Amino acid sequence: MRRPALLTAALAxxxxxxxxxxxNTRLPDIGSSAGEVLGPAQQAEYGAMTLSQLxxxxxxxxxxLLEDWLQGIGHRLAAxxxxxxxxxxxxxxxxxxxxxxxxxxxxxGTNAGLVxxxxxxxxxxxxxxxxIAHVTQDHVLRAVERAERDxxxxxxxxxxxxxxxxxxxxxxxxxxxxxAVAGAQGLLVQRQIDYTRANExxxxxxxxxxxxxxxxxPKAMAEFFTTLQAVVRVNRGGERERTPDYLQTHPITTTRxxxxxxxxxxxxxxxxxxxxxxxxxxxxxxxLRLPGAALASAGSGQFGWARERLRVLSADTPxxxxxEYERMRSKGxxxxxxxxxxxxxxxxxxxxxxxxxxxxxLLERHPGDLWLSLALAQAExxxxxxxxxxxxxxxxxxxxxxSAPVALTYAKVLGERGGAAAGKRAQxxxxxxxxxxxxxxxxxxxxxxxxxxxxxxVRAGEAYAEAEYLNGRPERALVQLENLKKRSDxxxxxxxxxxxxxxxxxxxxxxxxxxxxxxxxxDDR
Length: 525
What we know:
66% helix, disordered N terminus
């Protein structure tokens, strides 16, 4: 009886913090002090902590190809937003509920379910542009400011809920803990924002303008709103929980769809003028005529691959994903993207030979495609064709020397192979990414494995510790670094790096301990 009570307490705490009424229809005062409660550095810190905690509990889908695709869309939209210099971090969650959210520091999360519900990339972009607008128009920050005025410690509430959930049963109650934390995190990132109707209208208006400026189809916003409305009709008669989370925080009405269509029509009219050669970009002289190719859609052409990769990686198991594709095939032939998904599911299910056989003809139809090439190289490596795999990887690396998906996938395959030679090659492949991917836990984990098999235990230890920190486990990172510091073979530079990292992580761990939050794994030892 004690466990449900504690879980309920955790969720109730968040409801109390984040469930203020959202009926205000007035626009925020121009003189709002948004930005004074939390400075830019604190906002970024808050957003990074939210992401690390989501990683800690296994909700984030860290995949190099999907991240590259999502960041490409997001940063294109952000560059066309009202605040093009604002930093944004876009990440994907495994959850198949239709949802997306923005939190402090420009951190924007997208559920796998939202991409699976979309028919084209423009629709995904329309949701991201809406969430970007919530950040650029300071809606997120003003929500936190309101909470601050009410003396509600949002950050401590989040940490407290995590502690309560963990104490509800520790490691033996994984499902209960995950459920409690999922609810707590969900309420934090979705309902802390508590957008007013005016906020939603402004985010639609500003977002659709950025969507059009980025080259995406502005009609996509109304299209996706209509799709979401159809989901509600299908679920009619069910409980609130059956309504997609996105609709609980971003209600869709007929009026809202109509306004989105009207704005799209207006923007399309401007685009027609632009297609005749003129541009509405104030930075481009009015007399300058642009070729039609310059106004082509901003779509990456990767949506099909991305959606099917998400379908596989968000499934409970590879076997479940395979059955999902078999059901699709029973209704009609699979298209190329779906065939890629099925092959990827077979690869994940340790059926590398079957995966390679399905991927080879796909690559012939789409020569040079990165998604197919990487999957085929992985399948070849895992089916005993190491030389063929290496040739394919090396060719990709020569073509795209700074591509994170290529380097990380190749290094992972080398790590699976093992041996000092493979480890050293993996280190060399990853080294060019070190400056830009230092805050990526996948990079740190892959580099740690490469260093380990290359016979470089110090670098391996540092990278493993950094991965723990980025995955929301700072105390474990500190313990690993303290143990690493005891090694007798450390040179001056390694010791200086480790000391600096210990000094940076220690305040975070001390603050968590001060709030009574400890790492349950370390605490049980």
